[in-house]
Amino acid sequence: xxxxxxxxxxxxxxxxxxFSAYATNGxxxxxxxxRSQGQGGVGIAWGQDALAAATNPAGxxxxxxxxxxxxxxxxxRRSADIVGNAFGADASYSGDGQKNFFIPxxxxxxxxxxxxxxxxxxxxxxxLNTEYHDNPYARFGATGTAGVNLEQLFVTPSIAWKPSANTxxxxxxxxxxxxxxxxxxxxxxxxxxxPSHVSDQGTDSSLGAGIxxxxxxxxxxxxxxxxxxxxxxxxxxxxxxxxxxxxGRFDVPENYGLGIAWRPNPDWTxxxxxxxxxxxxxxxxxxxxxxxxxxxPLGADNGPGFxxxxxxxxxxxxxHPLGDALVLRGGWSHARQPVPAGETFFNILAPGVVxxxxxxxxxxxxxxxxxxxxxxxYGRGPTVHxxxxxxxxxxxxxxxxxxxxxxxRETIIGISYGWRL
Length: 421
Prior knowledge:
By secondary structure, the protein is mainly β. It has helices at about 5-15, 35, 245-250, 285, 290-295, and strands spanning about 65-85, 90-95, 100-110, 115-130, 145-165, 165-185, 205-220, 225-230, 255-265, 270-275, 310-320, 325-335, 355-365, 370-380, 385, 405-420.
């Protein structure tokens, strides 16, 4: 496999990935691998490169011996408004203190026999970043730049078994390395079970593991179905045990999905995925902030959180070759954005409200057999207008009423190179 040739890109990818931040479907990436990301994130039944195990480890069985190395340039635009508040005039705030993020990914697959294949995928699973130099919470007593930074690096080794030509099963341990930092929100220490562990504690990290299972089955020539499920991955940020529920617990949520790929003729392939991400099952993310006003402090057992709902994402894709060397693809995905109108005040820090992604991509096979793939994705969601989102009254129990409105836009440009081993 010429492992010495692969060591440098693999280690480089591993070293750089934690210093990137994503924000797409909530805080999960819309897809993994440049080909999938160029077609709306579709990939459960349609694995095309060595990052396939990040979506469905059963796809490892379809790829033979190959490697892929990619880099994505992620440009989010996040902002918030506070309106109708007793402690200051209506104002708008930009969370774009950091504007550009570069996210590498790497994958390798190897056929061990006609029935057994193995792989390794290293990628950014997700994340979220805000940096408000003009602190939206300053009117309530906060100081300094406000924001959060969440980063998730996943390493997924995979094994896939192909008992017949038409069926594959896959298993991939998800090893998750998370990093988190918060700043400029010290005023919430007065509402915390551990006031000194809410804000400005530097970057804390967490390491956990879970499992991803997958299946693909070809029902007839040109028609393939797929299914995948990933367990919750436990995580904890002890330095922020006064911010996150359950003493700093921050698990990666369970997620699962179904997919289809249909090739009606050699010139066209169509595909679709449905994915559900269970944010509501992670207390720090899914619990409502409302319990804070009922006397449950931040950081407490089953304490307040960001109030996110579960997200279901619908994805569609199309691919069309132009000759033997060029493939064009496109896609669209639509998600239920996770933030309810009553939860926008705390989510100024985490405005993961994108609903739609439009994507285009292409792959060019060079004369010697390597493959260059590029894609462009644009994501947007509506401005989520708060509804009773800022607690009325004066501190310590209130923040003067009114509402917070939040929004997010994002552009992603990616390129990768894939080669046969």
